[in-house]
Amino acid sequence: MAEVLELLGRMTWVDALDILLVAGIFYALLRFFRGTRAVQLLRGVLVVAAVVTLLASFGQLRALSWLVGRLLPALLVSIPIVFQPELRRALERLGRTELFLGRAALSPAAERAIEQVARAAQYLSERRWGALIVLERETGLQDYAESGIPLDAVLSTELLVTIFYPNTALHDGAVIIREGRVVAAGVVLPLAEENATEQVLGTRHRAALGLSQQTDAVVVVVSEETGIISVTHDGKMIRRLTEKRLLHVLRTFYRRTRPSANLPSWLERAVDLFRGPQP
């Protein structure tokens, strides 16, 4: 106890800041990996590393100490490979300008797009026509759009209803909407793994979750079996929405206070240019 008190007495504010930064980094990593497959992998790596390090700490185990010393560099190289999806997702999040600049206020084009999507979702829900509608935000979805049929058409409720009419050529895929236009239809999306979800979901819902886990897109899903309207964003799903609630949820994802509201006009324009086009 006396040694601990002596150690604390020698600590400076730089040491305390150092400890807080390291703790913050570990907390951020654990928070980011929570709810993903990486949690089990990370736990296994930490357990193995702790056991091997403890055994190697005994001076008599020279062969094991030598092996640990040789394997540690290989382990550091393998970690980025094992956690490649999670690291890619983290870097993509850091690259979003909204993390530093915030999100722009809801534009008239975005408001109109949201209203058209909500109206179409309600119409499709009443008839139990399955639908998968993707609203592109800051992360570009051109790679996914190229897997479908390019349209580049003005967004409207009637167009969405026509695309998702049963037995049409494009009704099984997703629609990607960018800046008030339907970029492509019949798009193939990445599926979330079943063990990563809390319940058994259909292909459309897994595709919506999969895309929202990898990008900042907002995905509206209409179930073909039940007609239930759902929204996925950031790997989370909100279900059983009405047209009114869907409008509220979609507006919430886009409407934020513009951080540059009190900036000079020239600086505000620079912020808008850096942020890029909004949906």
What attributes does this structure have?
279 residues; YojJ-like (1; 2 domains; 7-stranded mixed beta sheet; elongated; disordered C terminus
Question: Topology of this protein?
Answer:
Blueprint: H1 2-9, H2 13-33, H3 38-56, H4 62-82, H5 84-94, H6 98-101, H7 108-127, E1 131-135, H8 142-145, E2 149-154, H9 157-163, E3 174-178, E4 181-187, H10 203-214, E5 218-222, E6 229-233, E7 236-241, H11 243-254, H12 265-275
Helix pairs in contact: 3-4, 7-9, 7-11
Radius of gyration: 24 Å
Helix content: 40-55%
Indicate the CATH topology of the largest domain.
YojJ-like (1
Strand order across the largest sheet: 2-4-3-1-5-6-7
| Extended strand count | 7
Q: What name goes with the CATH superfamily of the largest domain?
A: DNA integrity scanning protein, DisA, N-terminal domain
**What is the end-to-end distance?**
59 Å
CATH class call of the largest domain: Alpha Beta
How would you portray this structure in words?
A 7-stranded mixed beta sheet has the order 2-4-3-1-5-6-7, with helices on both faces. It is elongated, with a radius of gyration of 24 Å. Residues 256-263 and 266-279 have low confidence and may be disordered. Helix 7 crosses helix 9 (157-163) and helix 7 packs antiparallel against helix 11 (243-254). It is of the alpha+beta class. It is 54% helix and 14% strand.
